[in-house]
Structure formats: structure tokens, C-alpha cells
User: What shape does this take?
Amino acid sequence: MTSTRHIRGIDDLGKDGILEIMELSNHFLEVSNRRIPKVPALRGKTVAWLFYEDSTRTRLSFETAAKRLSADTMNFSISSSSVKKGESLRDTIETISAMGVDAVVVRHKSVGVPWLLPKWTDASIINAGDGAHEHPTQSLLDCYTITQQLGSVAGKRIVIVGDIKHSRVARSNIKAFTMLGASVALAAPPTLLPPSMTNWPVDVIMDLDVALKEADVLYLLRMQLERQEESLVPSLREYTNFYGLTTERSRKLQKSSIIMHPGPMNRGVEISGDVPELPNTVITNQVENGVVVRMAVLYHLLGSGLAPIGLTHEDGTDD
Assistant: This one.
């Protein structure tokens, strides 16, 4: 296995690390399909959640992943913690570390927090989203989903649509997709693109209808109004007219193309209400894969090879 202490961004893994996570995910997919989807692979390890921002999918999938690996979990609730009394990030992480944790899954509104934490703890750090910077485990499950559906990420044309400027998912995905050999295009109004596209290995296509015709994967992003300090489009209605995916517009995709979205969806804005039910939409698959990929991430950091996965019966007992 590639030696990795933390997964704070895609660069911590590189291409080889991404491929290792995907291979591990195949093994854990088999575990998740068992009657009792649990193995003792991380028994005796403790994983803590440090979420300074709200989350549904990421937090629940990490918690489910840890429990399926038999790890102990420590839930840290900001609303009922000493953070409300003014406790610093350093004091919080040092307190958690002193309780004996092996990994900390952190989500924070400020860019760079996952890179600060190793100064104050020996635990492995997993970035569950830092500001508008990166969200590497979402990117890993997206790579895994594309591989499941299309056989490979390599050689695919992936079009990412929407609020690129504020999207940590887009930044991680662009890195991961291009590392694995995909061609990436962005479709968005100029106000929703980063101020500088220098060194971004992407094409920019302003006309979504043109982009649809060449996409193997259409990846939709929501409008992140909570991160916008000013109005960046004339109206949501106008944004939908030009960049929203309707059933009619989806017919311009190739028959083999898939539609993805990291959630939560704003139905009626970037995606019409009936598109998620189309047969080529794999949003539910992304959610399902979130658990197995995060099992792989935890095991990659805290486990010791593939062997423990195969050392249990289907009922979860040891050999």
C-alpha cells in the first residue's frame, strides 16, 4: 500500500493512491452486500468527527463506514461543545487527541484547516471539506462511481456545470479526474468561475447545450448561495434557463452518458424535478458508494493490508 498519513487533499494520494482506494472499495463493496455488513478490520481504533459545518451525506456515510469496520466513534457536536464558549480549534483538537483517537474527520468553513491539525495531534486527518478548497473523499467516490458505470475514468469527457467558483468538490474532482486520464470541461457563467483559470487543466465552455453533446459524464453542482457575498447571476430563473438540466435538455446527451450530482440538489435550479429519476442518473449510486469508499479511506489510513477483509465469515465472526 502507498504510505499515507493523511487525506487532506487529492495530492496526498496521487494517482497510485486513488487507484488503491478504488481497489479497496471493491473489496468493501462485497462486505457491504453481505447479510451482516460488518468486519472487525478496525476493531480497537477510534475515529472522531469534527464538523464545524452542517453535513448529512458525508457525516452519515463516514459514521456508517466506521461502524461497519468495527471502529469506535467519537461524535463532537459544535452546538453543545466548548467552542460556543470560545474554545480555540487548537484546544479542541488537543482535547480530542488526548482522549486517544486514531483519526479525525474534519469539516470546516475555513480553507486550510486540515493542514493545521497535524501540528496539534498525531491522529490521521481526513478532510471532509475545507471552505471552497477541497473535498477529497467526495472526489474518490465520484471516481469510483464513474468507473463502475463506464469502466474507467481514463479517456472520458467530464463536463462540470455550475458554481465552480465556490465548489470544493469541483477542485478535488478536477485534480482526480485529470490524474486518472479524463478530459475536463467547465460550463458556467463567467461570474461563477474562479478569477484566474491559470494552471487549471480544463476547457471552459459557456454554452451548456454544446457541452452536453460531448459529455460522457455530466456533473452538476448546486448554487452555493451561503458562500456568495454578492449576487453573481441576474436571477436563479435566468441561471436555470441557461445552465439548468431539464428533461428536454438531457436528451442532447449521448445515450451512454451519465448524470451526477454531489448533493444536496436544488430541484428546479440546476436540475429539474424529474431528471433525478432518469435511468442514466447515478446520484443514488454516488450516495451508496460513499459508504464503501469511506470504508476504504479509513482502512487505507488505519489498517494493515487487504487480509483482514477476507478473514471473517459472512456473519461477521472471525476465523
Summary: The CA atoms of residues 25 and 293 lie 5 Å apart. The domain at 136-285 is CATH 3.40.50.1370 (Rossmann fold). The chain has two domains: 10-134+289-304, 136-285. The beta strands are 46-51, 72-76, 103-108, 124-130, 157-161, 183-187, 202-204, 217-220, 258-260.
